Amino acid sequence: MDAVSTCEIPVVPAIHPAVLRRHSPMAFEPGAEISDDALDTILDAGRLAPSAGNSQPWAFVVGRHGDAVHARIVRHLAGSSARWAPDASAIVVNLARVLVEDTDWEYSEFSRYDLGQAVAHMTLQALSIGIDAHQFRAFDREAVAAEFAVPREWEVTSMTAFGVAAHAAGTVAGVARERRSRGDVTWTRVRADEPR
Fold first, then answer.
1. Which end of the chain has less Cβ packing within 10 Å, N or C?
2. What is the phi/psi pair of residue 175, to 5°?
3. Is 133 exposed, middle or buried (0-12, 13-18, 19+ CB in 10 A)?
4. What fold is seen in the domain 45-166?
5. Could you tell me the sign of the dihedral formed by the alpha carbons of 97, 68, 34, 30, in that order?
6. pLDDT digits over 45-61, tens only?
């Protein structure tokens, strides 16, 4: 099979190292800084994600540790995320466009799905440049929308904390990495070596 790709193709198909390394740390190095160039690269990865009809129904509020936007975001975190997220180098509020402006018409039935793709692209791009990410929903959505004057056609959907995972005794505190097996997540499939 001749494949054309912009990525290096291994001889034996393998999971990309960034995907293997991805986890959701619950402790970040509080002194780790993130540069404008790194943030721009992460945001560009989200900007370049695919979307239904190229609708690009996403927007981001970006707060870097120590700046005024970060302080405005942090005040609306729930107790569970307030224990770890403020130490991240940046917190990004992820917005989905859900309505056509000045109407009650749905903008795109795929807008939240598309936002998820954009955030996933941002997460993997961050990992590729040495920055860990934790996506979360433990915050007051309505308060964040009011804080940043988010119009009603946009939904404050989730947040992502970006930074360097804190290591204590050689381990990283985070959400469990156990996953269901490939067989468990595959609803139906005919393998190439099975009769069709």
1. N
2. -70, 145
3. buried
4. NADH Oxidase (3.40.109)
5. negative
6. 999 999 999 999 999 99
191, two tokens: 């393998």
Beta bridge partners of 156: 95
Q: Write out the DSSP string of 117-165.
A: HHHHHHHHHHHHTT-EEEEE--B-HHHHHHHTT--TTEEEEEEEEEEPB
Q: The sheet that has 58-64: what strands, in order across it?
A: 58-64, 90-97, 154-163, 132-136
Cβ pair 132, 163 in contact under 8 A: yes
In whole angstroms, how far apart are CA 25 and each of 70, 124, 129? 19, 14, 16
Contact call for residues 13 and 1 (beta carbons, < 8 A) = no
How do residues 100-153 score in pLDDT, each as one tens digit?
Answer: 788 888 878 999 999 999 999 999 999 999 999 999 999 999 999 999 999 999
Q: CA 170, CA 22: separation in Å to the nearest integer?
A: 17
First-to-last alpha carbon distance for the chain, in angstroms, is 20
**Residue type, position 163, single letter:** G
Which DSSP helix (H) or strand (E) runs through 182? helix 182-185
Structural domain spans, the chain = 45-166
pTM of the full predicted structure? 0.86
